[in-house]
Design a protein that fits this description.
This protein is mainly alpha-helical. It is 57% helix and 4% strand. The chain contains seven helices and two strands, in the order ααααββααα. It has a two-stranded antiparallel sheet. The radius of gyration is 15 Å and the shape is globular. The two termini are 31 Å apart.
């Protein structure tokens, strides 16, 4: 499976999880400390747009960063906003040369291929956050294992800081993949 197919699977699974959030559950607390389910959807929606703009323009315009990383990206339609942003990101990464182009994100400069890997790990981790908060499960467990493996390759000790990744939490090696992924991302499970 190539990177674009992997990203499409992440988008499909995340969309399925958001589509099946029970009525009223957008205000549920998530494993992402201090964030509700809506906050998590808002974050991944802004992040998808950020990744798309970085691939299309080389970097996100400065006046957009604050809005995408801290503003309201979903309004009254979290699912609809997520779908638009996810489609934008998929379209951007499908562009010829997108994997090789250098992109600048708030946390550094990297090839598009690396940015896509970060997006896969981040979005799927947050899909698991949403699922855990709303009594669901991520169904594509192979995808969870893939994201966890990618996380082990990308999350360096320097990234283990408040607001980025908390320290990895202890969890049994035979715990379900979703729990191991959340523990790796610093969630208290």
């Amino acid at each position: 499976m190539n990177e674009l197919q992997l990203l499409q699977r992440v988008v499909d699974e995340t969309t399925r999880v958001i589509e099946t959030v029970p009525e009223g559950a957008m205000t549920n607390p998530s494993p992402c400390e201090g964030w509700t389910v809506r906050d998590v959807v808002n974050h991944i929606t802004g992040g998808a747009t950020m990744f798309a703009l970085s691939v299309e323009q080389g970097k996100v315009p400065d006046d957009e960063i604050g809005r995408l990383m801290g503003g309201d990206n979903v309004g009254t339609d979290p699912l609809g906003a997520w779908k638009v942003a996810a489609d934008h990101a998929l379209t951007a990464f499908e562009r010829p040369g997108a994997m090789e182009t250098t992109v600048t994100l708030p946390f550094g400069e990297m090839p598009g291929r690396v940015a896509l890997s970060i997006a896969v790990f981040d979005v799927l981790t947050h899909a698991v956050d949403i699922a855990q908060s709303t009594g669901q499960q991520v169904q594509d467990l192979d995808l969870v294992e893939t994201a966890l493996s990618m996380g082990h390759q990308m999350v360096t000790p320097e990234l283990r800081q408040p607001g980025v990744f908390d320290p990895e939490q202890p969890v049994a090696s035979d715990a379900p993949a979703e729990i191991r992924l959340l523990a790796f991302a610093g969630r208290r499970v």
